[in-house]
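DATA SHEET
Item: assembly model
Revision: 1
Owner: S.N.
Input lines:
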Amino acid sequence: MPLSLPEYERAGGYAAVRKALGFLAPKDVIEMVKEANLRGRGGAGFPTGQKWSLVPMGQDAPHPKYLVVNGDEMEPGTFKDRFLMECDPHQLIEGTIISAYAIEADVAYLFIRAEYTLAAERLGRAIAEAYAAGYLGRRILGSAFSLEIVLHVSAGRYICGEETALLNSLEGKRAIPRTKPPFAVTVGLFGQPTVINNVETICNVPHIVANGPQWYRNLSRSNDGGTKLYGVSGHVKKPGLWELPMGTTAREILEMYAGGMRDGHRFRGFLPGGASTDFLLDQHLDTKMDFTEVQKVGSRLGTGTMIVLDDRTCPVGMVHNLEQFFAQESCGWCTPCREGLPWISRTLAAIEAGRGQPEDLDILDDQARLVGPLGHTFCALAPGAIEPLQSALKHFRDDFEQHVRKRGCPWRMAAGPGG
Amino acid sequence: MMLTEEEIRQIQDEVAKSQNRRAACIEALRLVQSHHGWISDERLQQVAALLGMTAAELDGVATFYNLIFRQPVGRHVILICNSVTCWIKGYVSLLDHLRDRLGIDFGQTTADGRFTLLPIVCLGACDRAPAMMVDGERHDELTPEKINAILAHYE
């Protein structure tokens, strides 16, 4: 069970709200978060304080302004926001209040995916507790600041996690991404200034305000501030989730925390942060898992939840599973994504089934070049889909070629009929 | 096949909390579905009228979201995760097991109206893969035997 409000308060909870509302101006909070170098934990790593500072402020700013907390966690391989929402809902609410205060928002929406039923139930209860204690509503703790929190439970679709699609969904529309600019910070929900932050990002804010930006930066082993929830899944001994200093290496996470590979399974590679990141290999394991360093070796930190590929899993099959997911979840708005991803998925299915042609690999390379670049589509779904594909074609080319040459999947053939 | 007075009142409550009427449409659809399991044409038309939308507009929204059902479903809906970590951890053989046991494929309902089987994207339980959800309750670290035991709980 998560902490109740009194328990959370006894553990120091809501002290940061008292500090922010009582002693800090909104711009001071923004400065602290900037100085802390908190980068967005949804996967893109955009500096949070910088995003906040783009919101129109003061007397002439349009109202209402909105804060949207993105709890639509659906990136395959990612299970960190569910943990935060289920296990410490008050931390998220406290972060939401302070973040909303920083941008002078009037309403905060918590957008949560439909399948996270336990998280929604616990958040709903915690929100009610926070209202009753005067942390939410009119003139919070006697200050001039008022905030309403609305819990919105979604009805499915990965694309809702894309921030502008999420706004359309909150407006009761099909979740189709919007063209940018204008950016949501000026023209967002219902046309009003809106900041969208990931759940994990928001959960960092109370600690930055309570302990100061320097303390927060010192938690980290890299330039990106703070700690990070890292996860590992796949055939490792102890799959799980750990809060560690930002910049902990992939090897430490895999070997010290996840316990290394399961007996009988050899490590072949990993996706560092969810389905839409490039495969990395053995030689990349000493990379610090932060936004800058993972990018230097050709992938992205993404959500920081690693998916491990082992030698008993077919890399072509794994990529096929990923591309099937992206093809299914394309909202259909942009042609390269709507047409390209199913083509890729069908080509991979053919290769898996032993119907692959030698030129199919060139076709996949071409598709990656056409569908992948940012700017060919409104949002980053298709570019994200191409990341595991292009890196698999590079790192596991032999496996693709063997499938074509042997007219089928070597793993399945080895397993025999029905394997 | 009409909305009850209680449902209408609940939808109006959602509308009162919303910025505008149509912004409440996903809440309204979820609400109606929670009472009946799915959204019939008649009820869709009624909800649309309450929200000042055309039925076509609301259907455009309803059919976009995979967890709004526009066809009848069984008493219990099984959502089995087919995303990457569950796939690595043996999702395919679990699906085969479910198909055999229930005698249905994705999108179908058992003849006794007990179960509907649907795929779902990553349920965020990758550390305890493979996973599935039945009526909003998650079950993980699945094996064929465990699936049999779970299904027995749902009449």
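QC remark: Chain A has 18 helices and eight strands.
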